[in-house]
Amino acid sequence: DAGVIQSPRHEVTEMGQEVTLRCKPISGHDYLFWYRQTMMRGLELLIYFNNNVPIDDSGMPEDRFSAKMPNASFSTLKIQPSEPRDSAVYFCASSLGTLGGMGTQYFGPGTRLLVL
Amino acid sequence: AQKITQTQPGMFVQEKEAVTLDCTYDTSDQSYGLFWYKQPSSGEMIFLIYQGSYDEQNATEGRYSLNFQKARKSANLVISASQLGDSAMYFCAMRGTNAGGTSYGKLTFGQGTILTVHP
Fold first, then answer.
1. Contact check, Cβ <8 Å, A55/B105
2. What residues of chain A have any CB closer than 8 angstroms to a CB in chain B?
3. What is the pLDDT along chain A (116 residues), one digit of tens a residue?
4. Beta partners for A105?
5. Do the beta carbons of residue B112 and residue B6 sit within 8 Å?
């Protein structure tokens, strides 16, 4: 089975530009999570969805960040406008429920974002 | 609030030896899950092992085992017979539940421990 798929794997952009990160969860998983990893803050949850509905977006840094999940097999995380402090690795993860071992989150390979 | 503490920034082990990576947690949740992930230098996050707070036995997955001591709020990862490919960053994480028994969903991560396996 295919794991979580993310694109692009690497993104270099200039400050002020719009950035769109994409994620395809594992087929059949009903939860999708977006995390960000930086040296200073470690791994932190940005937002997560259940059955395509956003459940908790309290980790989204500010209005420049938005996330959507138009269907069960696709989600986007958009940053507009981007800033150098947004440089990080962005992970998408998915799970089947959130209980017990079945609710284990499986991560995609991440998108390494550099904003100049 | 939940908190995960990994006190070992870096650990070294000789190939074929066992190593223990420490993890302590703080939570007031009655039910929770504990996870370990491996992040090699290539950057992906690889799930290793899961322990539920009500599981009576320590979890094991191949060369990985979780030394779960609930009273001490610790969930240490033990890697037996270390291999060079085990060199990576290791993260301990927790997922809790609210008073109604609904999982929070999100994982709270520790800062990680870098493991280096020497030949």
1. yes
2. 31, 33, 35, 42-45, 48, 50, 55-56, 59, 89, 91, 93, 98-101, 103-110, 112
3. 689 999 999 999 999 999 999 999 999 999 999 999 999 999 999 999 999 999 999 999 889 999 999 999 999 999 999 999 999 999 999 999 888 888 899 999 999 999 99
4. none
5. yes
